Amino acid sequence: MKFSKAEVDAIIEASPRTFVPFNKLVLSEDHQARSATTPAMSLPELAASIKDSGVLQNLVVVQAARGRYEVCAGGRRLAALTLLVQQGDIADNYPVPVLVVPADKALIASLAENCFHVPMHPADEFAAFARLLAQGKSVEDVAAAFGVTPLIVKRRMKLATVSPRLMTLYREGGIGLDCLMVLASVDDHQRQEQAWAGLPSWNQRPEHLRQLLTRGEIESDADPLARYVTVKAYEKAGGPLRRDLFSDDDRKAYLLDPALLERLAADKLGKRAKQLLSEGWKWVDIRPRFAYDEYVKHGELRKPRRAPTPEEAEALKALDTRIAALHEQMDALVDRDGDGDGDAGEGVTGASEANDAADEDDTSRDRAFLALESEAEGLEEERKARLEALTEWPVAWMALAGCVLHVGADGRAAIKAGLIRPEDRADLAQAITKAAEQKSAGGGGSEGDADPARGSGLPALQSLPSAAGATARPVHSEKLMRRLTAHRVAAIQAELLDRPEVALAVLTTHLTLKLLADPLHGAYRLPNLLAISATGNQHELRGAAEDIEASPAAQRIEADRIAWIEHLPKEPDAVFDWMLQQPPQTVQRLLTFLVASTVNGITGTDTGRPVNDGLARALGLDMTRWWSATGEAYLQHVSKARVVEVVHTVAGAKAAGTLGALKKDAAVAQAEQLLAGRGWLPDCLRVQPHADASATGGEEVDANGPARTEAPACD
After folding, report:
1. From the centroid of its chain, how far is CA 53?
2. Which of 187, 529, 643, 704 gets the most CB atoms within 10 Å of its CB?
3. Please, are residues 42 and 147 in contact by the beta-carbon 8 Å criterion?
4. Phi-psi region of 455 (alpha: psi -120 to 50; beta: other; left: phi over 0)
5. How many Å apart are CA 489 and CA 128, to the nearest integer?
6. What per-residue string of b and e applies to 148-178 under the rule 16 or more CB within 10 Å gives b?
7. d(Cα 601, Cα 293) in Å, to the nearest integer?
8. What does the alpha-carbon distance between residue 186 and residue 433 come to, in Å, rounded to a whole number?
9. What is the DSSP secondary structure assignment for residue 707, as one 8-state letter?
10. What is the DSSP string of 560-575?
11. Mean pLDDT score, 256-261
């Protein structure tokens, strides 16, 4: 039988309302419409609310024997009152508001309370918390009133500050609570709305949303520099940061001043740098973040290992003997596995006993093997430590070399030692020659020894790069070179999007050099053209050139990326089946985009042929379509003499002559006007002429011709 709300209201209207002492109430076993469920509010929270504000909604009861009342609706309120009585917060005769209904209508009344009750939306709860605090209540008072921790109150207050537009979406079910908490971690409503609008419909996950909101910020628990400096030291230095109230780790923060963080790291490294200098190194560079490109022209010495003393040699020999014996015992145990121990002629009972014995034997062998393996691993670590103790830097080497002190990936100070500066190579060569002459004069060495440094106590010179031109100041700084080559990489990626045949050729070339390297002499020494490990380099491009996102090339790549993300299935497991259902042209276009996204080529030096030059030539790359020498892009970052030189090349001596008397800013502004529309490019952005075919081992790939089936040439 179905009851309307009007009929239920009539029953309630005819029933008297009164107050009943708590100790006269018992939970009804016959008239409860709802079984035990997981409530939205915990019992301690409900008890705290009743303690602070009283019972706001009456219990529904029926009169029972001996002056008692059975509660048929409001069981959780009764349980919360029981908790308050047990804690001594209220008396056991506390007056409880009740609605007394006839026994035959009790179940209907219980149904009415549970069916017609509309729970408060969480958004209303957030707003109510905010209004309570606005009325002058403290966070602690509100927390005590609702039986929650102050952190929960702060979190709900933070949720109340989300953009009204996003809060409306949350009320309508368009945003989940997990994403709302991420949005609330920043205060800027515009940033919140932009981040939500930037999420593709298939990837509205809190993790991806957090990445968008924290771009440019430094995570205290993930960034090596932040872990090395510590949040405490960063805050003490006045560094701005943002804490996420919704993080499970209350110590996590987002640091907002990278420059200050690097300065603090450099200051902390400075103490260790003084120790290294006192040990005898010629120089020590402090680099919070080690950049390999900065030291590409340096030679690197290998830390030598001295001969062990008789005692050390004996200890190593004993370790080797014991490790070998352990491995022999482990091999013997493995050989015994699977050997049949039972007798085929035994009966059922005998076979069962034999199987039980075999199982016990297997278990015993497993335990013995693990024990031997554990001992062998411990001895291997001891052997490794003993060998490491034999390696040390000779004083003669340290007097000519230096080291770079930086923060490693593990958030600890790390040392790159044994580096030879280009200007020190001549001194090293002279020291090697002198040491070799002294040894020769003393009768040392053997006939036909091709290495004059052997036995001299100094490293071989052949292992060092050429010092030609090392003392000349480069035209472009390492930072500018990375910026320029980042634009070149982005342009190649954008051009490659329209050339699937070139993408297929370059991908096949890369895989050939990786998988067929043995028969291709020197393939291992070739630099990687593609980051084929499926890690796109868009983040690296943004790190190298802060203006890259505004470039036409980067915008083209990003537009294609968004389009493909919208096109692909939402679930990773469905991608392969989806791929099989697509026409070959679609798969080819997607492959082209993916290959383009992995093109490498950012470098901090302007010497040598760019790694992507062959690809640029195959594409017919014209960088003037993608880049121009404006003040911001180039002229502000080079010397005034370089600005004059460029203008002289493009516009002639007369135009260049007027810049000499101007200050740098004025010269840059005038040079920018003179170069506008002239198509000038620095050498690092130009496509180099093709090398001799004999040097590359093949012919140049014709970018405009049909696809070839032969292996493409590799520059």
Report:
1. 48
2. 643
3. yes
4. left
5. 53
6. beeebbbbbbbbbebbeebbebbeeeebeee
7. 12
8. 64
9. P
10. HHHHHHHHS-SSGGGH
11. 88
Query: What tokens does 131 get?
Result: 């209004």
Strand, coil or helix: 349: helix
Q: Which amino acid is present at 405?
A: L
Reading the block at residue 223, the tokens are 């960034």
Residue-by-residue DSSP string for 540-551? HHHHH-TTGGGS
What's phi and psi for 589, nearest 5 deg? -65, -40
Q: Which of 552, 554, 502 is nearest to 529 (CA)?
A: 502
- Angle between helical axes of 206-213 and 189-197 (0-180°, round to 10): 130
Give the integer Cα–Cα distance in Å for 680 and 161.
51
Instruction: Supply the DSSP string of 117-132, one letter for each residue.
Output: --PPPHHHHHHHHHHH
User: Residue 302 — very low, low, confident or very high, per pLDDT cuts 50/70/90?
Assistant: confident
In this predicted structure, what is the pLDDT of residue 413? Answer: 92
Which ranges constitute the DSSP H helices of 390-424?
A: 395-398
Could you count the other beta carbons within 10 Å of the beta carbon of residue 277?
14
State the DSSP code for 530: B
Other beta carbons within 10 Å of 486: 26
3-state DSSP call for residue 61? strand
Strand partners, 17: 99
Residues 18, 24, 28, 34: is their CA dihedral positive or negative? positive
Closest by CA position to 697, among listed 676, 711, 678: 711
Q: Which stretch, 8-17, 658-667, 686-695, has highest mean pLDDT?
A: 658-667
Conformational region of residue 652, where left means phi above 0, alpha means psi within -120 to 50, and beta covers everything else = left
Q: Please say whether the beta carbons of 276 and 284 come within 8 A.
A: yes
Question: Which tokens belong to 454?
Answer: 């052997």
Residue of 635, 612, 351, 595 lying closest to 480 (CA atoms): 635
- Which residues, other chains included, contact 113 with Cβ-Cβ below 8 Å and sequence gap of 6+? 33, 60, 73, 74
Tell me the residue type at 482.
R
pLDDT in tens, 169-207: 888 888 887 888 888 877 788 888 888 887 777 777 877
Amino acid letter at 160? A
User: Closest by alpha carbon to 282, among 399, 392, 397, 405?
Assistant: 399
